[in-house]
C-alpha cells in the first residue's frame, strides 16, 4: 500500500471531548461510562480531550503567544488527528459551558468534514438544550452532527459511587445507535476526503 493512501481497514480515531472544566464536575463519570462503551468496539480508537488539561484564554488571537501555543499543543493535535468526535456536555443556563465554546473557537480546520455525536447530561432536560445549540455551532464549522444522542436526565441519580450506571440497558442501546451512525459517517467522510479534499 502507498504510504499516502489511507488504510480504510484501520480503526477510526474518535476524540471524546469533555465539555466542562468546572470544579466538582460530574462530566468524568459520564465520560468514563461512554468511553468504556466506545473503546469496546473494534471500529474506534478512542482518545479523550479534556479542556481542564489546557489553560486556553477566552481572548482569541490569530497570532497566539508562545505560552498559548503551548496550551493549544495539548489539545490541537488530538482534534486534528481525529476522524470523529463525541462531545460530552452538561447544560449551564439553557446552554453549553463557556470552556467548550472556547475550545471549539480556537480551532477551525480540525472540525471540518468530520462527524460529531453528543452525550449530554443535566437536570430535567438532560442537557438537550445545550446539544441543540451545539448543532448550530458545528454546522458553521462544516462538521456533520449525527441525529441520535445519549442523554442523562437528572444524571446524578443514574450512577452509583463507582461510576456504574444503575440500569444500563437503555443508555447502552442509545450509545450503540449513536456510535453506529458516527462510524458510518466517519468512514464515509474519511473515504471521500481520500479521493477529493473537502472544499470548505
Summarize the structure.
This protein is of the alpha/beta class and 200 residues long. It is built from 6 helices and 6 strands.
Structure write-up:
The protein has 200 residues and is of the alpha/beta class. Helices cover 37% and strands 17% of the residues. The chain has six helices and six strands. It has helices at residues 27-39, 66-72, 76-81, 98-105, 128-140, 169-195; strands at 12-18, 44-49, 84-90, 115-122, 144-145, 150-153. Strands 1, 2, 3, 4, 5 and 6 form a six-stranded parallel sheet that branches. The longest helix is centred in the C-terminal third of the chain and has 27 residues, at 169-195. The model is unreliable at 1-6 (pLDDT under 50).
For this entry, give a set of tags.
single chain, 200 residues, alpha/beta, six-stranded parallel β-sheet, 6 strands, disordered N terminus
The share of residues in helices is 25-40%
* Estimated share of beta-strand residues: 15-25%
Please compute the radius of gyration using only Cα atoms.
17 Å
* Poorly predicted spans: 1-6
Classification by helices and strands: alpha/beta
How many helices? 6
Q: What kind of oligomer do you see?
A: single chain
What is the average per-residue confidence, as pLDDT, rounded to a whole number? 94
Q: Which term fits the overall shape?
A: globular
| Helix and strand run | EHEHHEHEHEEH
How many β-strands, per DSSP? 6
Give the end-to-end Cα distance, rounded to a whole number of Å. Answer: 29 Å
**Sheet of most strands:** 6 strands, parallel
Amino acid at each position: 500500500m502507498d504510504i499516502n493512501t489511507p488504510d480504510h481497514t484501520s480503526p477510526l480515531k474518535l476524540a471524546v471531548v469533555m465539555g466542562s472544566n468546572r470544579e466538582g464536575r460530574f462530566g468524568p463519570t459520564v465520560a468514563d461510562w461512554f468511553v468504556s462503551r466506545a473503546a469496546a468496539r473494534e471500529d474506534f480508537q478512542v482518545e479523550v480531550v479534556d479542556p481542564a488539561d489546557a489553560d486556553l484564554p477566552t481572548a482569541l488571537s490569530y497570532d497566539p503567544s508562545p505560552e498559548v501555543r503551548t496550551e493549544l499543543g495539548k489539545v490541537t493535535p488530538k482534534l486534528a488527528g481525529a476522524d470523529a468526535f463525541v462531545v460530552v456536555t452538561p447544560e449551564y443556563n439553557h446552554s453549553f459551558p463557556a470552556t467548550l465554546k472556547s475550545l471549539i473557537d480556537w480551532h477551525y480546520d480540525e472540525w471540518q468534514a468530520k462527524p460529531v455525536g453528543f452525550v449530554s447530561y443535566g437536570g430535567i432536560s438532560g442537557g438537550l438544550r445545550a446539544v441543540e445549540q451545539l448543532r448550530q455551532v458545528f454546522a458553521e464549522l462544516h462538521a456533520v452532527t449525527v441525529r441520535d444522542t445519549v442523554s442523562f436526565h437528572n444524571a446524578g441519580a443514574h450512577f452509583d459511587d463507582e461510576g456504574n450506571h444503575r440500569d444500563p440497558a437503555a443508555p447502552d442501546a442509545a450509545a450503540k445507535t449513536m456510535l453506529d451512525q458516527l462510524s458510518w459517517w466517519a468512514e464515509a467522510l474519511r473515504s471521500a476526503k481520500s479521493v477529493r479534499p473537502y472544499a470548505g
